[in-house]
Structure formats: structure tokens, C-alpha cells
Amino acid sequence: MKDETGLPNGPAKAPAKGAAKGAAAGSATPLRAGLRPQLGLADPDAARARLAELAPALPAGFLTPPCRDLLLGLADHSPFLWRAATRSPERLVALLDQPPDAASRDIIARQRAVGAACGANPDLAEVGRQLRANREAHALLVALADLGGCWDLDAVTGALSAFADASVSGAVEALLRQGMAAGRYRPRDPEAPQDGSGLIVLGLGKLGGCELNYSSDIDLVVFYEAEPAAAATGGDPKPFLVKLAQGLVKLLADRTADGYVHRIDYRLRPDPGSTAVALSTGFAFDYYQTLGQNWERAAFIKARPIAGDIPAGEAFLAELAPFIWRRHFDFPAIAEIHALKRQIHMVRGHETIAVGGHDIKIGRGGIREIEFFVQTQQLVFGGRKPALRGRRTVAMLGELVAEGWIDGRARDELSAAYAFLRTLEHRIQMIRDEQTQRLPTGTEALTALALFAGFPDLPAFEAALLHHAGRVQAHYALLFEAEPEAGADGTALVFGESEPDPETLARLGAFGFRDPPLAWETVQGWHLGRRPALRTGRAREILAEMLPALLRALGGTADPDAALLALDRAFARMPAVAELLAILRSHERLRLLFADILGTAPRLADTVGLSPHVLDTVLDADFVTPTTDPDEVRAQYRSLLGQPASHEESLDRCRDATRQMAFVTGARLLSGILTPRQAGEAYAAIAEATVALSLEAEERRFALDHGAVPAGRCCILALGRLGSRQLSAESDLDLVFLYDFDPENRTSDGRRPLDAVVAYNRLAQRVFAALTTATRRGRLYAVDLRLRPYGSHSPPAVQLSGFAAYHGGEAELWEHMALARARVVAGDATLAADVTAAIAGILRQPRETAAVCAEAGAMRALVARERGHAGPYDLKLAPGALFDLDFLAQAIVLSQARDWPGCIGLGAESLFREAAARGLLPAAAGEALAETYGFLDAVYQWQRLVMTDPAAEPSETASRQIAKAVGLPDARGLAAELRRHRRRSQALLARIRRTVRMPAAARELPERQ
């Protein structure tokens, strides 16, 4: 019976977790009792004759039909296995009469113990003989369990890998003990010479991934921690450990009359052509941080300490993790790894899929393409997705599905192909115990292999091979090999001539550019190097390859010409663009979004120009499932910050995190995933997280110098649009720093103590500097502290008692109005509760409605006289716009909070509707005011996203974008709707003023415009 791989006796399930520890513990059934081989015979007569020679040495009744079929298959197809079987019939019988898992564990334990079992001064020749004898026994066992249908691929590769681990560990133990006997090595514990030695032996490749093949060589790298290694060797450890690494090759790889154990490949170490076979970890870190290549990053995905000082090896890999796993999606890795694969094809001639002579590892549709498919996406996405950092190929295909990077069909087809090809690889290698993946060329040899693999004939085998290889090639091509686009009809675009090419102009027009000659001139400037960032060879190469696709994406925007000019301006500002172009080349979705951003959202385009990897976030699976919950946003922000090593790094990481999260919010708004209101909540949550974590960081840093004030507490109060969770893309932050302490114990407890008042004012200065200082990564926010008591004439921090006293007696009414949108966003929770209660008490003071409205009207008139407004699109200050409506909402809170405490904290729209329901506003006015507020606030959010100057008259492109976003047909419709809402707002406000019979001073509102 064949499984999904198309191979009889092939793996019927995906690799199980934990297989790296060897074959999973199975049943207690002896191997002979569970056999179900399906091996065809190429020369049945010769196979029977060979078995007849062996049969007398076997116990009576031993050759059950399945056992006979299995041994006939060995006799017919594998000279290596038949020699191993006939060399010791007693061993063959013993292996078949044990459960295979138990037999494997026993042989592996013996192999690991060889070094210690040979005494204090081991005879290396005897060590080598024992290692080789165990290897032959284990190789025979694995083949019997595999060909007999008792083990799946996962169990086979797990057992082979566990045995190789034991081989290396046993050999290292013997070599260290020999060094001890010679007085050259003095371990901390003579009974466990590897422990604490500083010697690190890493397994890479299939050994590291616990995916070793039947006759594989093993990829090892030998490093050492200088300090413990020097202590053990009594000086420079390098000569001793280099000799040990060389001795490891002799013990394991040299062929003797007893065979070999494992071929060893040290070529994955740093600069193998010019370095020793054992290197210090210090040298390794320097190398990887300065010269490390993407292929080396890919190699270290599977790295695993297998011998020596295992904890030191794990610590080394943990420290090396930032080299392997980049913080950003690393799309350039795709091109570099595919270039390596193309080089393999060109040099070794594996460009097409075939059967006879085809290499199923490095040929097209082979094992290496599956591994590259997985490892490349691990490199690209694993820095941000820890679940993608696993060592095992098939398991990572499942994680790629879980993370949303591939679909279930790709996982299933590639997993089945991997199982088919790896099992076929084992059949090829079992024949003569050769490290080869190349199929034979003659019909007779191919037919014999097909029968050994369990197929009835050669055509069935060929069909299965071509089926799986074709699927692999198709999936690989989707990731790596999309052909470069040309013009609309497939012809290349031409920008190198002195005069525009007519056909190229026509195609630019077809793409959507209204001024093709200007577009041509702009792009020609890129080719001529007018933008310094485009002068490097790599940038020019990537641009040439992706230019048609980029122009097509720009042509699909609302204003292709403006988008192209915005891109040209971005290129002019950027010091380098190769990274951005590589990202855009690799993903169509990002190209389309970036094109939209260029045409409609200049602020977002500036962010991409400054930090191209913010585009990575659009590819995250959670891009389409955003959260505006402050706690969840704070957790996301904290994960982006990580563990900065210094204050400067902390400041930079804060700026990177805020920029990235704000970009995602804008991109979600632009994509229709967030509504304007939700975007305001998201921007506010980001700012809240920034403030809170900046306060945490500065408190820790401050405590190092000055300690903490006993029983001291501090918090940060947000007002304005941050307080009401309506922040926009470019809002500043209105903040007040509050503190409290025990007046009987007011001195900080650090090495440089300060009085509490001084301490909290200095801490406030540090926090606000952290938020506003421009570093190499830019700045975070503009911060306005003028809403604190006494404004700019007072210290930056305010004690709670002083805050309460000021608002209880000296504050003006407009300052109480500002508190209607106040909330604590950072700091001590108990102080936050006290501040919130104090503010509620201030807002609930008894006030006459007419007097409140009169003062509010007078204040609004003063603002109109002193600040004016920028015109009808100034949705903050224009008459009937948001400022007027916010003043009304705040006036309602101040005049009604005593009898209606639930109004505190309500948003303006909810407040207007509820006030009308309570009879505090005319019945029809509440819904109308709420509708107008919602519309104006939505447009205001869009203005801040897509316009450089939100208060100015928008460009035609911006008007169309905003109109489309708020459900209007065009720019004219947007202007008319804004005018209608503002006029209605002014009329309703006038009606409300008449209702409350406001004094004359309050009627000095701006005239309708």
C-alpha cells in the first residue's frame, strides 16, 4: 500500500515533535513481528541463492514470509546491507528480535559511552573500532526498520541524527581523556571532561535539524570560549583544540578495515579557506557581525550544540541570534539565496527536471528547493515571528501556514514531496552506503531502484518522481522566480535615449500617467544617476528589474503623476534605496500600498523613506485584525522595545516603535481597515504606550542616581485629543506631570539624595526630554505643558495638593473645561485614582448653565480674534467646526456634571445624543450635532493623514481621496458637505445660546463663513 508520498513503506505522517531526540518511543513489538516490506526484486534467482547461503545460520522458524521478503530485498538491491547482514548472522537475529526503538537507543547509548569506556588513557585505535562496529549495527537496524515498514521518515532521520550526536560526543570524550593522560587538558571534573570545558561542537545542516540522511556527512563547527578553555589547557587553548578537531576527523571519518563512522565537513565555519578548524567565540562573533553572509545565517537556522560544553553552546547561539534573526522582514535574503541556487544549477547542470541521472537534492524540484523555500522565509520573517525559528523543515511548513505566509495546499504538497524525495534519497544511499543523491542513468539500474523503492515498475516510479518534483518546482518558482515585467505588451521600456521613445511614452500613458513625457524624464533621471541613492550597482539592478511593475502600481493610483513625483522627491532625500526597492520587488501587495501612499499620504511616504522596513508590518497576519485596546497596544509596544542595552538605544527604539505603529495605523486607515474614529483611538493608544514606557524607563534611570522617594507617587495626565482618545497622525500631546509624597519622609534614598519636589521636577524634565528630543531616529512628539496650573510660569511637575488647590480657587473656567477631556495615561495606579477623583470633584462643582455658556462664549470670541482660522477647510478653528463643538460639549459637562456624573468621560457625539435625550439640548439638535461632529472629525483625521498642511485647501488628489473615504462622489461634494455641516452647526449653536439666554458678551462669536 502506498501513502501520500507515492512510496510504499514511506512516511504516513508529518514528523512528530521531539524527534530530535531519536526515534520516538514505540511499541514493545519485536521488529520481526511488525515487518511489512514491499520490495520488488530485479533478480529473484540471485537473491534467493544468496539467502539460501545465509539461512542455515538463522534459527529454525526465523524466516517468516515478511522476514524472508525483507532479506531478499537486501540481497537483491544492497551489497552494503547484505554484507552487514551476513557478517554477523547473530547480530541480524538479535536486531530483528528486539523492538527497533529499544535496539536503537541501546546502540546509541553504547556509542556515546565509547570514549569513557576505554579508560583514562584510551587506545584511539580501539575507540575507532568500537565506533565503527556500532555504526554498522545501527545502519543495519535503521535499514531493517525503514525497509520493513516499521519506521516512518521522522523516526529514521531522528535515529540517524541521535546516533551521529552520540558518535561525536563519544569521540570528543576519548580525545579529551587522551589529552588528560598526556597532561595537556585538566578539566574541572575528570569524570565529565566535556562539562564546563568551553569547547563547543555545533551540528549544522541536516544533523542540526535532526534530519540526517542515511549515508550523510555531518556538518560540524568547532568553537571555544577562551576563558574556560584556557583554564583547562593551562594556556592558549587553540593548539590543543585544533588538534582535537583534527583527531575527530581521524576517529570518525577515516576509512579502515572496519569502515567509517561519519564523514565530517568543517567548511561551514567562518572563512574556511584561511581559518583553523577550531575558533574562539570572540573571533566568531566579530566575523558574523561584520562579514557574515545570508547563506551563513541560513546555515545557523539549524545549528545545535551536540558535544562538548552544551550550555556554552546554547549561550553562544543565543548571543548569535541577532545575526541570524533580523528585527525586520529581510526580503533581500530571497534574492541572495536564489542567486546561490541559480549558481548551483549553472555550475552543476541541474537546470531541468529529469529522471535518469537527475540529482534529487540539488536538481530542479529537489530537496534543496524545499529547504530553500522554507529557510528563506524563515530568514525573512523569523526575526519578527519566533515561531518560525525551528530547525525542522516540515514542521516549519506548518508554521508558515499558521503565520499566514503560505497556504495549506503548499504545505501539504511540499511535505509529501519532501517525504518522497528524502525516502528515495535513503534508498539510493542504502545500495552502497554512498553519499549521493543522483539517480542512475541506465534503464536496468533505474528499474532496480524503482523496485527497491517499492514501485511495481519504472513508469510508475518516473510518474511519481516527476509529479512531486514538478510540484516542488512550481512552489519554489512562486517564491523566487517571478519573471520581470516589461511594458503593457511585454516589450521592454526604454529610458536610456536622449529623446523619449514613442512606444515607451505610449505605454506610460496606458499605465495611467497624464503627462507621459514628464514621467519619462523623471525615470530617465533615475537611470542617469541624478538621485545619489540610485547610483549604486545594486540599486540600479533592482530598479531595472522591477521598474515596469513599480510604474504599473503607480499608474493605478488616484494621481499617478503626483505619486511618481512624490517617489522622485523621496529618492532625493534618501541616502540609499536598495533595501526599499528589494522589499517592493518581493511583494506586490506592498508595491500597491506604497504607490497609494505616495499618491495620497505624504507623511506616510516620508516614514517609509526614513525606515523602509515599516512596510513589513503590512505583511503581518494581524494587519487586518487591529486592536485599539490600550493594554494590548502597550504590550505590542513593549515587545518592539525589547531590552535596550543603553539609554541612547532605548530612545532610538522608542522612536522606531512609535514610528512603526503610527505607520501601521495610517496604513490601516488608508486601506479601510480602521475607521477614522478607530484610528484616533489607535493613535492615542500608541502615544499612551509611548508616554507610559518612557516614564518607566526614566524612573529606572533616575533611581540609579537618586533612588526613589519613600511612599512617593507620580503619574502623567493627558488632556486635549489624547485625553479624549481622538489623536491624529500629527497631533501634539497636552500633558501634566503630577506627583505626591509623604511630607514627613521627603528625601530620596539613592546615593545622591534629593528633596521630593526637586526629584519629581527633574524626573518630569527627563520624561519630557525623552519624548521631545531629536535623536538620529527623529523625535517622538511635540509636548505642550501649558495646561498645568499657572502654565509656563510654573515648574514642570505639579503636586496633587497644589493641583487641587489651584483648580479649587484660582483656575479660570476654560481650564476646568480642559479637564473635561482629561485622563491619566501613565504612572502609579493609586495616584491615578486620586487624580481622577479630584478631577471629578472639580467638574462636579455647582455652576449656573448661563454663566458657563457666557464664559465659554467669551473665550471662544477671544480665540477667534487672536488666532483666527485658515479658511473653510480649517476644521479645528473655523466657525461651526470642531473647536466650537468641543467647547459646547465641555460647557455641558461643567454645567451638568453635578446632577449627571455619567457625562464625565463621554465623547462629544455620545454626549450630544445623551444630553438631548435628557432634555438638556433641543430634541433634534442632539443627533444633528453628533452627526456633524462625527463627519468633521472623520475629515479632520483624513486631512492629518493625507495633507502636509491640514488647514489649507486640499489638492485635487487629496480632496478626491478624502471624499471617497467619507462616502462622497468628488471634491465638489466634499466642499459642499463641509459647508452644510458647518452652517448647520452654527445655526444650532446660535439656537442653543438663545435657549440659555446668554449675556451679550457670549454672543461675540465669529460670523458665519
Quick overview of this protein structure:
The protein is mostly helical. The strands form two sheets. Strands 1, 2, 3, 4 and 5 form a five-stranded mixed sheet that branches. Strands 6, 7, 8, 9 and 10 form a five-stranded mixed sheet that branches.
Describe the structure.
This protein is mostly helical. The protein has 41 helices and ten strands. The strands form two sheets. Strands 1, 2, 3, 4 and 5 form a five-stranded mixed beta sheet that branches. α28 (630-641) packs across α30 (676-706).
Number of helical segments? 41
β-sheet strand percentage: under 5%
Calculate the terminal CA-CA distance, rounded to whole Å. 84 Å
Please bin the fraction of helical residues: 55-70%
Q: Largest sheet at a glance?
A: 5 strands, mixed
Shape: elongated
- Report the radius of gyration as a whole number of Å: 37 Å
User: Which structural category do the helix and sheet elements fall into?
Assistant: mainly alpha
Low-confidence stretches: 1-6, 8-25, 344-350, 482-490, 997-1009
**Mean pLDDT metric:** 88
Q: What is the β-strand count?
A: 10
Layout of helices and strands:
Layout: H1 44-54, H2 65-77, H3 79-87, H4 89-96, H5 100-117, H6 124-147, H7 153-181, E1 199-204, H8 205-208, E2 218-224, H9 226-233, H10 238-253, E3 264-265, E4 278-280, H11 281-291, H12 294-301, E5 304-308, H13 310-324, H14 332-348, H15 367-381, H16 393-402, H17 408-432, H18 443-452, H19 458-480, H20 502-511, H21 516-527, H22 537-555, H23 560-573, H24 578-586, H25 588-600, H26 602-610, H27 616-619, H28 630-641, H29 647-671, H30 676-706, E6 713-719, H31 720-723, E7 733-740, H32 756-772, E8 783-784, E9 797-799, H33 800-809, H34 813-819, E10 823-827, H35 829-843, H36 849-867, H37 882-896, H38 908-917, H39 923-946, H40 956-965, H41 971-995
Parallel strand pairs: 2-3, 2-4, 7-8, 7-9
Antiparallel strand pairs: 1-2, 1-5, 6-7, 6-10
Helix pairs in contact: 1-2, 4-6, 5-6, 5-7, 6-7, 7-10, 12-15, 14-15, 15-16, 15-19, 16-17, 17-19, 18-19, 20-21, 21-23, 22-24, 22-25, 23-25, 23-26, 24-25, 25-26, 28-30, 29-30, 30-32, 30-39, 33-35, 36-37, 37-38, 38-39, 39-40, 39-41, 40-41
